[in-house]
Amino acid sequence: ATGLFQHTDKTWLGIAKTPGMAQRIGLPENLTDAQLLELRKDPGWSTIFTAAYAEQNQKVLSGVLGRPANDAELYMAHFLGAGGTSTLLSAYQNNPDAIAAQMMPEAAANNPPRFTKDGRQLTVKEVYDNMVVQFARAPDQVQRADVDTFRTMAKGKRTREKNETMNVYSETVLQGPPNNLTAPGGFAKRG
Q: What is the pLDDT of residue 97?
């Protein structure tokens, strides 16, 4: 897994090659798989792809659950995929004491720490409960990481902006460089 949100090759390419997705998210056309995978290292693209992945997962999980997936379930889908999460949720309702790795061998192979503890394979209930608890703690982790992540994203964006359309627009129409989103009038000024 690579990038800010740790996407595997399979997940990243799956998102990029979803019919209509490239145009929808502004992905340049005709990129090779290697070029697409390189985009994972860009925090902006990683954020866009993660949002698209969550949207795809929401559609699948809502169909399985008969209701919108909650945030913890979408968090699970980021790690397990929509199919793995569907399996986990179904097993949680019908067979919570089953060994989770036996029901989801691919997910367990890709995420061993989520499926074992002290050398013991965890039950479906334990995997589900652990992920819910981990998600509940995530806002604290994200809050501490926000400043560093924002700085990394801003630095990369400034480097790329030199000759991009928005920079040309802002220099000619707004008579100055693009404003920070948090600056007074920054976002609204750009429209």
A: 97
